[in-house]
Write a structure and sequence with these properties.
Order of helices and strands: HEHEHHEHEHEEEEH
Number of domains: 1
Bound molecules: flavin mononucleotide
Structural class: alpha/beta
Radius of gyration: 17 Å
CATH class: Alpha Beta
Number of helices: 7
Strand content: 15-25%
Length: 223
């Protein structure tokens, strides 16, 4: 994942992996409103490669859909919940972020690999999320690590956690290593292609999910 990238090269060079050529025809949000996308970066510091990756994923989504994006950075809110046991003991600022997570149309979750797993504070934030608050919610999984050796963290750590929540984890996860970044920006063409492929594969599932959720909400309101 070390091929250099310029913004120009992304647009000039076709994505070679086959699915991007038969992208879903419905490439705009079917909900008739911007999609509420909440991204969580589990990094403990800033600047952060994980946060840079998250923002690149949001940029890719934003090229395909109308989105209303919000980024939660654990390094900012971590001190507000570290060591807290119960949700009703959390400060309002953290409670507001949890509410955003639980009411999002789509979650993008990412963490740096720490000792072969996500960071402790990333997990601790999700310890406060309601057990059934993420049922069927589409979730795009991503991680950064020092090397590619822990790329399966997506399958072995993230997917089981969000499986517990009965969420809809999207099929392609995005893993990046330190060499994919320069100055905390994505510089790898391979990584950019992987992001775009993950988004392209996710789009139909997201759109179906949001249309169904909105339809259920309308019928509950008697509309
Ligand atoms: C405490 C600690 C543990 C780490 N453990 C791993 C690891 O097990 N595997 C790995 O590939 N990278 C590991 N790394 C490297 C980070 O995952 C990697 O540098 C990541 O890109 C940092 O992301 P950030 O800039 O968003 O914090 C570790 C880094 C730290 C600080």
């Amino acid at each position: 994942m070390s091929q250099p990238l310029t913004k120009q090269s992304v647009t000039d060079q076709p994505v070679t992996d086959e699915p991007s050529t038969d992208r879903p025809s419905a490439s705009r949000a079917s909900a008739g409103r911007p999609l509420r996308v909440v991204a969580v970066s589990g990094s403990l510091h800033a600047p952060s490669k994980t946060t840079a990756l998250v923002k690149e994923i949001l940029a890719s989504l934003g090229r395909e859909l109308a989105i209303d994006a919000h980024v939660i950075e654990i390094n900012e809110i971590g001190p507000g919940f570290a060591g807290t046991l119960r949700r009703d003991q959390l400060p309002e600022s953290v409670e507001n972020e949890l509410h955003r997570i639980e009411t999002a149309d789509l979650l993008v979750v990412a963490s740096p690999v720490y000792r072969a797993s996500f960071t402790g504070l990333f997990k601790h934030l999700f310890d406060f999320v309601g057990q059934y608050a993420l049922v069927d919610k589409p979730i795009l999984l991503a991680a950064t690590g020092g090397s590619d050796r822990h790329a399966l963290i997506i399958e072995h750590q993230f997917r089981p956690l969000f499986g517990f929540f009965q969420a809809l984890t999207l099929p392609i996860g995005i893993y990046a290593n330190d060499s994919d970044f320069a100055n905390y920006e994505v510089t790898s063409l391979d990584l950019q292609e992987r992001i775009d492929l993950a988004v392209a594969r996710a789009l139909p599932l997201i759109q179906i999910n949001v249309a169904e959720t909105d339809s259920i909400a309308r019928s509950l309101l008697g509309q």
